[in-house]
Design brief:
The structure holds 2 protein chains of 2 kinds. Chain A is mostly helical. Helices cover 71% and strands 0% of the residues of chain A. Chain A has a domain at 94-158 and 174-420: Formate dehydrogenase/DMSO reductase fold (Up-down Bundle). Chain A is built from 16 helices and no strands. In chain A, helix 6 (171-204) packs across helix 7 (208-217). In chain B, helix 3 (52-78) packs antiparallel against helix 4 (91-117). The longest helix of chain B has 27 residues, at 52-78. Chain B starts with a strand and ends with a helix. Chain B has 2 domains: 4-48 and 124-181, Alpha-Beta Plaits (2-Layer Sandwich), CATH 3.30.70; 52-117, no CATH class. The radius of gyration of chain B is 25 Å and the shape is elongated. Chain B is 49% helix and 12% strand. The model of chain B has no long low-confidence stretch (mean pLDDT 92). Chain B has a 4-stranded antiparallel beta sheet with strand order 2-3-1-4. By secondary structure, chain B is α+β, with helices and mostly antiparallel strands. The interface between A and B is large, with 59 and 62 residues.
Chain lengths: 472, 182
């Protein structure tokens, strides 16, 4: 699969190289448009390395995941370690973790679009697909933790024969609205961005069946000027609409906690704290997926060290916000002198039976982002990859202690209890990775995972700029 | 049926020049086909401003009012449930779903109007019958000059296009007998 080295004629011109002295170029190939199109479409016709074997493994794992869900639904929530008071344990931890991961995809595709950061063009498709699949995984948990998932639609306002409406003054209908909107808008954004590339796939398909398949999904796109003009406007508007979603979805999720009375949850810092944590963990997940892909498909000239560097810097920024909120939470717990707050934050979390999860989180979330000050960590894929995994380990444990400790030890010592997960809890969490991997592999095989038209547009922009710098 | 001439160009700069020359000759009914959007081409075509934002705004307004009024009526009147003496119609509590409704319908407004203005989905278009046209999604730039233009003439337009950098010029949208006549 690896590409042959580029001939010298594709090397960057001296003037252009000089203009990008601040870092690696955002696109290091000067191959022609036709060559680029052919190359980026190749995984659709030929597949990728280890694709079939990986699909078999993850597909099997996804079936195992469905089996665990079925077992839970048929037997009941008693198969989990949940108890009273700890009613929200693994399920909600996994929910918050997965939905948080989704945020980086929207951040890359929408916020960076509005900020005209052209390095987003090579990775937005990948990141958006990650968002969609992360939301699918996240949405499983609120459903199954109901115990009777077949009544889940009660959260939505529909004219019911029971003459009832949901109580919109609670956080759960907000959650239903936020997550379904987030998924729908992300899907629209992803699909609208995909249209030109589906048309390219249709026009280059080797067989009639494939041409028809991509032809149907391309909706008859012919790249006319009128279409492009409306497309650019619609894409920009979707970017503008998805941008507040980056901030609102995890804010709404955090309100599930913040509008309750429990110590450790009832806090105004929660919305920004959750959003920063979400983008932080999402960037880590994008790196976890992107770094192996980049090596396996030999696309180091399209996803360059510039991308790695920029992503690592964003991990540093959002990670710093996250550990700043840890410090503020602890300080406020002490400063208010509230006995319930201080016994939770200063005694239970720091020294209690769950203290190891707290210290693991504090440790990793302090050390890993701060490694990103060093270029060696930002630009060396293997170190960055290990860091990205550690970030998500830490973020999972952060959600775990946040959710479990507050419920385990609330106001009355008589209602305190410990929580221990069962093997079913673990199996369901493990299963989500298989489902995610399965969906992601299908995406890699059937959709151009590097945006083709946007990469060519970026190359055109860079070439125009290059010519201007050389005074041609 | 839409018919006219389809000219093929190697890059967008030549295409921009050809568009300007045709417009100077008084021929304005045309559209470019490009693998990626090039600002100079879109400017040279002098297309009317996109009306997608209006429909998106309309969608957003409908979404906001629908979501808010539904909550206000459902929780305040149709199923007025007193939870701990809290007000029945609570503005702050209704804001999150109102926001989500706004974003959802504004997004649908943008996508549906984009598809409508672009006449998508579309099963077939005469320009796609020209064999070279498959490269419109790869590396070539095309200009489709419409025969509906009152100042359009097959021979004259073909001469102008060939004299201004077109790699090839083909007729599209003609019936077989019209093709033979030409």
């Amino acid at each position: 699969m690896r590409e042959p080295p580029l001939p010298d004629s594709y090397r960057l011109s001296p003037a252009y190289s000089k203009s990008v002295e601040d870092g690696a170029p955002v696109l290091a190939t000067r191959a022609g448009d036709a060559q680029l199109t052919e190359r980026l479409l190749r995984p659709l016709w030929r597949g990728g390395p280890f694709w079939k074997l990986s699909l078999l493994v993850t597909g099997g794992g996804a079936l195992f995941f469905f089996a665990t869900l079925l077992y839970t639904a048929l037997t009941g929530i008693g198969t989990w370690g949940n108890n009273i008071p700890v009613a929200w344990a693994f399920a909600i931890t996994n929910f918050v973790w997965w939905i948080g991961i989704g945020h980086a995809g929207t951040f890359i595709s929408a916020v960076l679009l509005l900020l005209e950061q052209n390095w987003r063009n090579s990775i937005n498709r990948l990141a958006e697909a990650m968002t969609l699949f992360a939301i699918v995984n996240a949405a499983v948990f609120p459903l199954i933790h109901l115990g009777r998932p077949w009544f889940a639609y009660w959260i939505f306002p529909y004219p019911s024969t029971m003459d009832l409406w949901p109580n919109f003054k609670g956080a759960l209908p907000w959650d239903g609205a936020a997550i379904s909107t987030y998924f729908t808008v992300s899907l629209l954004f992803w699909y609208v961005g995909l249209l030109p590339d589906l048309a390219a796939a249709r026009d280059h398909a080797p067989t009639l069946a494939k041409r028809r398949l991509y032809g149907i999904f391309a909706l008859g796109w012919r790249g006319s000027g009128r279409t492009w003009k409306n497309w650019q406007m619609a894409y920009l508007l979707l970017g503008g609409l998805a941008t507040p979603l980056v901030l609102s979805v995890h804010s709404v999720v955090s309100l599930d906690f913040a509008i309750t009375q429990l110590p450790g949850w009832h806090s105004t810092i929660f919305p920004p704290y959750f959003v920063a944590g979400a983008i932080y963990s999402g960037f880590a997940m994008v790196l976890t997926l992107m770094l192996p892909l980049r090596a396996l498909y030999g696309i180091e000239d399209i996803i360059t060290t510039r991308h790695l560097d920029a992503m690592a810097k964003l991990i540093l920024v959002t990670g710093t916000v996250v550990y700043y909120t840890y410090a503020v939470e602890l300080f406020i717990a002490w400063y208010t002198g509230n006995i319930f707050e201080s016994q939770l934050f200063l005694w239970l979390r720091l020294t209690g039976p769950y203290a190891w999860t707290v210290w693991l989180t504090f440790g990793l979330n302090f050390v890993v982002p701060n490694l990103m000050w060093f270029r060696a960590f930002r630009q060396r894929p293997i170190l960055l990859w290990i860091s990205s995994i550690l970030v998500n380990v830490a973020m999972w444990f952060e959600r775990f202690f946040l959710i479990v400790t507050s419920q385990a030890h609330d106001f009355l010592p008589s209602s305190w209890d410990m929580y221990r997960p069962t093997y079913v809890d673990g199996a369901i969490f493990l299963g989500t990775f298989f489902l995610f991997g399965f969906l992601f592999l299908l995406f890699l095989r059937f959709v151009p995972f590097i945006p083709i038209s946007e990469t060519k547009e970026l190359k055109h922009t860079l070439e125009v700029e290059e010519a201007r710098l050389e005074g041609r | 049926m839409r018919s006219g001439l389809l000219a093929e160009f190697a890059d967008s700069e030549v295409l921009v020049r050809a568009i300007r020359i045709l417009r100077r000759e008084g021929i304005v009914a045309m559209d470019a086909h490009m693998p990626y959007p090039v600002r100079d081409v879109l400017e040279a075509l002098e297309l009317p401003p996109s009306r997608v934002p209006l429909y998106s705004l309309a969608g957003g307004l409908v979404g906001a009012s629908y979501a808010y009024l539904l909550q206000w009526w459902a929780n305040g009147f149709d199923y007025a449930l007193n939870v701990g003496g809290r007000p029945l119609g609570s503005v702050p509590a209704f804001i999150p779903p109102t926001f989500e409704g706004t974003v959802l319908l504004a997004a649908f407004g943008a996508v549906i109007s984009f598809l409508g203005f672009s006449k998508l989905p579309r099963l077939w278009t005469p320009v796609a019958e020209v064999p070279q046209f498959v490269r419109a999604t790869s590396d070539r730039f095309f200009l489709a000059v419409d025969s509906t233009d009152p100042r359009f003439d097959f021979l004259r337009a073909e001469d102008i296009l060939l004299a201004n950098g077109a790699l090839s010029v083909s007729a599209f949208g003609l019936l077989p007998e019209e093709e033979a006549e030409r």
